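PT: before anyone asks, these are the final sequences, not the draft ones from last week. 225 residues across everything. Please model them as a single complex and drop the result in this thread when it's through.
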Amino acid sequence: EAGVTQFPSHSVIEKGQTVTLRCDPISGHDNLYWYRRVMGKEIKFLLHFVKESKQDESGMPNNRFLAERTGGTYSTLKVQPAELEDSGVYFCASSQYGSQTQYFGPGTRLLVL
Amino acid sequence: QKEVEQNSGPLSVPEGAIASLNCTYSDRGSQSFFWYRQYSGKSPELIMFIYSNGDKEDGRFTAQLNKASQYVSLLIRDSQPSDSATYLCAVPFSSNTGKLIFGQGTTLQVKP
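LR: through. Structure below.
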């Protein structure tokens, strides 16, 4: 069974540009989460989808971040315009409905210059 | 503000020794606890979870939970160099959400 996949693995952009990160959860997992780890800090929650609905977006830093999960399958996280402080590793995780056991993807390493 | 605290380390142990990793949490109502292992540049991998007070064993790993003292620990017996990684403690924000609160992680180095 394929795990959680993320694309791209790395992205280097300039301040003010737009970047879109993609996450493909494990097939059949209704729950999809985005987390972020900035250098020297702990992994922090961004938001949680149940199928295509946003269940909790309390961790989204500001309105420069837009997450979507059309059709309840893969999800995208767009940062527009990117700022220096957005640099970090963005993780996606998924879990089955009703389960708290989350499986993480390899992450996208974003560097904003 | 719900918090999960871990000593960032590094914790260095010789091969074959027992490694003890600790985590404290602030929310007395927390019910479940997760330990993830993360190799450098890789994704966090779930290795243990525990819900009840006491010990839970899985191979060389033992999770210990003490709700009265609000700490959870992970013991790794017969440590191997391949156990060298960062170990992350995570606690759900509440019982009806999947949002996990992570500690900073403890880096473990097992020296041959």
